[in-house]
Known about the structure:
Blueprint: H1 3-14, E1 22-25, E2 28-31, H2 37-46, H3 51-72, H4 79-102, H5 107-132
Antiparallel strand pairs: 1-2
Amino acid sequence: MSLSDLFTDLEVLSMIKENDKICVREGHIAIEQKSHPAKIALRRWYHHDSRRTMIMEINKIITQSLSTCKELQNEKEKTWTLEQFKKHFSGIKNGLLNLQRTYHDDATIVARLNVLNDMLEEEVKKLNSLITSSSYSIPLQGIQ
């Protein structure tokens, strides 16, 4: 998955509102369109969308993003990319909290979202200290 695909999926996760349903279309996460409940149920059945599928996809996106972010931390010229990960990881928190409220009756989903949120918070702390260190400052090329 490319960085732009990861950033797009992370951005979608940050847009989740309470009571939104998540689906996977063409390998990317999406927010289910609002329509008549029967239409939604039929569409979700047809595409095999479920809570379990949703949480597995969210887990995959976040795990892959964390892994890619860690790989890039050894490359000093990747500061912009690391800042983007930090921005998206911070933004996801509200989306995950809204999903927790939506699925408050499902302990497994809530627990998984808590774990993912904790992992993201820890990574944001690491990125904050890494990006603010002098070795990761962005050079101002062409300005003298």
